[in-house]
Amino acid sequence: MSTFQTPVREGIPVADYVKGAFVPISQLVRGWELHSAVALTPAEERGILREPAQAIPMVIVERLGKVRVLVVPYVGCKESGDVICFSKPKGETHSAVWVESSERIDLVLPCRELDPHDTGFEFLASTAELLRSRLTTEEMERYVQLLEAEARAGVQGEIDEEALGAKRQIAGTRFRRRLSHEQYDRYCEISFSATLAEYMHGLWHDVQVRVGPEHLPVPQLRRRMVLMSEMFPPNQGYQVFSEELKKEE
Fold this sequence. Notes:
With 249 residues, the chain is of the alpha/beta class. It is 45% helix and 15% strand. A 5-stranded mixed sheet has the order 2-3-4-8-7, covered by helices on one side. It is globular and about 50 Å long. 31% of the residues are buried.
């Protein structure tokens, strides 16, 4: 079911690939199209893209504008740049890449040797990263204030490993931005993107809360999810917290 309209060859630069002629398989959400260079079963299409796409709050969909999602076998990392590969490449690979233009965003998602759920999460994580650069100053400041409240409370954990690593790099600054401005801002950006991705993940399906010293305590995790729901309200029929959790409260 290849929709790429040029002869298939190995190592197509991503920048060239997104210029190709494509026929959409389907519409995901408003203004977002799905294309695929590989055959997808109905279950794969649902798990990789359709179900997670429907969980993305419409305010995010509208802010990102037109998005073309291109499913490919692999994206290889070469010295000359990222390339689309139709067989497993040697060396490192990417889980997602994108090209932004005035016309649209081309989001390229490799799917070979990945669980559909994992590709679906990469789709949401990429959406979160794309939104981060489009936040208003006021929106980012709300999130920074939440992080500073966590710091004052002595919270050591984070939402995922990357955010935790960035947090540990500024552990000695007491979160005073003037002492490590660049590292602090980078931590805030990583933490925001990871938190938004996990928020949309939870809208997509029930997610098990991870516990332990490296993870966020439940009260702080809840506050983050509440803030995300205030900034980016769920679509009709989606909810942040399960009915069981609501009853417990």
